């Protein structure tokens, strides 16, 4: 009987995939490195009965470094690191003995199926695995295919079985692009780190210059923070004045009007406008305009937006958010959480995905209403050609997930439902007043149809005091006119969410 070796990116992922493919019949044992388990079962592969061995790595098997003599800072000019210094692949974590483990499990196998994550890094790890196992696998006849690649975006029975039934090949070009990026990161990072560390040593007494590292991502990101800090430090507040007017009519709730000039920076001119308006005790309605507007539903969820919301709304750092998302993914609750895409494929089963949530007590009413009246097509987003947007795959409860995992799952689910809901529609009423020779405006928004804000209430239109009907020519009593002195303020320090948005805007990984 022939043997098929299957390799996933993480031990938990290997266990989940083996459970689905073996229908729960796999037996498990620990590998020689103690970190990775091996799940074994018999089944059918390419029309023949075979023995399957499902195991995993723990991320990258190999890492890139300079050869030994170039690791001496005092004997090597940093400039040499850009071109002359040769590099070599080393085991990423020697304690795991990952190469030896893969060779022990791969020895005597006839086929290998690669279940690494379906991104460029996963593609690169595919070839790291192949470098380890191909030399010890059974010899093949000329032209016989032995290497297969599984493509999947979620850990569900359907997606995993579909991936197994439509195996492809690993993409060498994507793997090489990661090799190139790793070499660029190594050469640029090490060269600049050594240069600036040696340059700053002894220059400033209170500067810890034992190591001043440079990174192609971290340094420009730090630059955003420094730039904002400099703006705050150099900011000089400037006084300005605002004319504030309150008006009322009978027993109605008083309205605070916004000055059409907004503000002025000269006190004498501001005082002049105050004196001119104080002569009038009435505010005359010059015009009333009503306009129906819409607040758009969100685009489908990608990684950057998930991390941004995790930081700004859920109080969870990006690293923590991603760790939880990956756990939800391996447990089959959500689709693959690393994606740049915000557009669902045309053949994506939106209705079937929504139907999974029809009995969840937190949003079943909204879901059933959408299923009854037909879901709305999501907004057109960006197709980055990697994975579908982050989507819930099955219903879950707070008791089932608990804590931060539930809060992130709840957001992902609400976001998905919102993408196929309708836009929020509201009526905006603007009343233009004249007080003396100055113009003021009051605006009110009234919800016509809540649309997606029913499932994402924190994005809804705030409830305001409704206007009493009025027409052009109506008059209100001026209750108060005063001049408010204020100061311009410096920008705030960047929040984590703002920094993530800046990184995305400038293409920083």
Structure commentary:
With about 500 residues, the protein is of the alpha+beta class. It is built from 14 helices and 14 strands. The strands form 3 sheets. Strands 2-3-4-1-7-8 form a 6-stranded mixed β-sheet. A 6-stranded antiparallel beta barrel has the order 9-10-13-12-11-14. A two-stranded antiparallel sheet has the order 5-6. The mean pLDDT is about 90.
Give a count of the beta strands, DSSP E runs of length 2 or more.
14
In DSSP terms, counting alpha (H) and pi (I) runs of 4 or more, how many helices?
A: 14
Shape: flat
For the largest sheet, list the strands in their spatial order. Answer: 2-3-4-1-7-8
How does the helix and strand content classify structurally? Answer: alpha+beta
> Mean pLDDT, as a whole number?
92
SSE succession: EHEEEEEHEHEHHHEEHEHHHHHHEEEH
What is the alpha-carbon Rg in Å? 31 Å
Measured distance between first and last alpha carbons: 46 Å
**Largest sheet properties:** 6 strands, mixed
Instruction: Report the portion of residues in β strands.
Output: 15-25%
Low-confidence stretches: none
Question: What level of helicity do the residues show?
Answer: 25-40%
